[in-house]
Amino acid sequence: MKKLGLIVVDLQNEYLPTGKLPLSGIEAAAANAAKIIADARAKNIPIFHIRHEFANGEAPVFVPGSDGVKIQPAVAPTGDEPVIVKNYVNSFRDTDLKQQLDNCGVEEVVVIGAMSHMCVDACVRAAVDMGYAATIVHDACATLDLEFNGVTVPAAQVHAAMMAAFEFGYGTVTSTQAYLAAK
Asked: Domain Isochorismatase-like spans what residues (predicted)?
């Protein structure tokens, strides 16, 4: 079995119903993420928390120092679990995430978090491009409705399209229940 590492992407207050960018299903996703995090802690699987901030406050969300950038209490890091602050969609860009994964001997990443179509997507694709096997726990991820060219795409369809793309060419997609039962 490959050495696992859990990447928790951007489960921050900004995405809660009280935040500036609420996601569809974020509370259920965070509850599932908390189960996966607890399991990782029990099994000594290294956990890497990702926290998004826009440097210089150039956007109205994820403003440095705001309540919105804080990691949600249900999934907050404990002990010496690293928090990697990123300023871009991709968790690997201009961060030491790869170095930290490699230092822990991680060969396979389990990815959970937000948003399915942005930061989770970028993290999964970059990880696979760097040679890590990937597992995505679909019900521990969340997203929102998108709009393009006058067409609104409901969050459930956005999420399903991302998970289908991951399953097609990037890794294993599973549920929290199946993940916890298999590991």
From this structure: 6-147
List the domain range (segments joined by +) for residue 22.
4-182
Tens of pLDDT, residues 108-137: 999 999 999 999 999 999 999 999 999 999
Given a cut of 80, is residue 47 above it in pLDDT? yes
C-alpha span between 67 and 63 (Å, rounded):
8
SS3 26: helix
- What are the strands of the beta sheet with 47-52, ordered from one edge? 83-86, 47-52, 4-9, 108-114, 133-142, 172-174
Q: What is the mean pLDDT of residues 149-154?
A: 97
> What is the value of pTM for the model shown?
0.97
Q: Which pLDDT belongs to residue 181?
A: 96
Six-digit token string for 14: 């900004």
List, in order, residues 6 or more apart from 117 with CB less than 8 Å away. Answer: 143, 146, 158, 159, 161, 162
Cβ-contact 91, 134 below 8 angstroms: no
Report the distance separating Cα 128 and Cα 43, nearest Å.
23
Q: Provide the CATH number for the domain around residue 129.
A: 3.40.50.850
Question: Rounded to a whole number, what is the distance in angstroms from the first to the last CA of the chain?
Answer: 10
